[in-house]
Amino acid sequence: MDQAKAWIHCDGAYRLGLTGKGIGVAVLDTGIYPHRDFDNRITVFRDVVKKRSFPYDDNGHGTHIAGIIGGNGASSDKRYQGVAPRCNLICLKVLDHKGNGSAADVLAGLKWVERHKEKYGIRIINISVGSFAKKGMSEDSALVRGVDAAWDAGFVVVVAAGNNGPGSRTITTPGISRKVITVGCSDDYKEVDVAGSRMIDYSGRGPTSACILKPDIVAPGSGIVSCAPRPGGYMVKSGTSMSTPVVSGALALLLERYPEMTNVDVKLRIRERAVDLGLPRNQQGWGLLDVGRLIE
C-alpha cells in the first residue's frame, strides 16, 4: 500500500525504528490467507464461522485488511508494505465467504479477544465491517455494546465509518459508538470500485442518531493495493474498510513508541495531531491522519 503510506508520512516513524514490533492487532474479518508478507506473524487464527484450525480466507477482504496493517512487502520488494510491518496479527474469521456475518459471531470474536488479551499482547482491534440495518442503529444495539465493552476492557477499537455516504447519519454500526475510533475515507472524492459498484463520495457521514459527531478521523481508502489470498499476490480495494487498517497500523507504531498509553490517551492524541482538511466536521472528523505528527 505504497500510495497510502506516502500520504500519511510514515517515513519519520521508520527512521525511528518503529515497525509495530510486539504490538498485537486483532483483525475481525473474513479470515487471513498465509501470505508471504505475513511471515510468521499470524500469531493465532480463530475461525468463529466454520471452526477450522488453519488460516484461510474464502473472500479476500480480511487478507487485504491485514496486509494494510502489517504486511511486510516481501513479495513486492516492499513496494506494497503495510503501515506496521512487524506487528503481530491475531486474526478472527467472523464473516463468511460473501463478507456477511451475524452480530453473534462478531460478538463471539470480541469476547475471545478480551479473554486472550494478555496471552497474545493484543492492544488494538480492527473492525472493517458494519451494518446499516435500521434495527441496529441504536447505541443500545448488541454490536455497539460489544465494542464499548472491548473499549472499557482497555483495547484501542478502530471501526469503519461505512460506505453509505454522502448523506448525513450514514455511519454504520458499530461505528456509531461514541467510545471507539471511527474512521472515514479522506479521498472518497475519487470514483472507485467499492464492493463491485462504482462509487464516489461514499464515506459515511455523521452525526449519529444520538447527535454524536462522527467520524473521528479520516485516512486514505481509495485504490489501496494490499495482499490477495493467493501466493505472492496483491489486489486493489477501496472503501472505509481500507481506511480503517491504515489507522490501526499507525496506532501500532504509536503504541510501540509509547506502550504506556491508554486507549483514551490514544484517542486524544489522534484529536490533537490530526490535520484539518477544512471539510465539515461530520465528513472529516478531527481531520486527516498524519503518522509523523501522531508519533512525534
Summary keywords:
Rossmann fold; alpha/beta; 7-stranded parallel beta sheet; two-stranded antiparallel ribbon; globular; 17% strand; 296 residues
If you had to describe this structure to a student in words, what would you say it looks like?
This protein is of the alpha/beta class and 296 residues long. The chain has a single domain (2-295), classed as Rossmann fold (3-Layer(aba) Sandwich), CATH 3.40.50. The chain is built from 10 helices and 11 strands. It has a 7-stranded parallel β-sheet, sandwiched between helices.
Q: Please state the average pLDDT score.
A: 94
Secondary-structure element pattern, one letter each: HHEEHEHHEHEEEEEEEHHHH
Strand content: 15-25%
Output the structural class. Answer: alpha/beta
CATH topology: Rossmann fold
Could you list the spans in which at least 5 consecutive residues all have pLDDT below 50? none
Write the CATH homologous superfamily: Peptidase S8/S53 domain
Radius of gyration: 17 Å
**Tally of helical runs:** 10
Ends distance: 23 Å
Helix content: 25-40%
Q: What's the CATH architecture name?
A: 3-Layer(aba) Sandwich
State the total count of DSSP E strands.
11
Q: Order of strands side by side in the largest beta sheet?
A: 2-3-1-4-5-6-9
Oligomer: single chain
**Given the C-alpha coordinates, what overall shape results?**
globular
Please identify the top-level CATH class: Alpha Beta
Number of separate structural domains:
1
Q: How many strands, what sense, and barrel or not for the largest sheet?
A: 7 strands, parallel
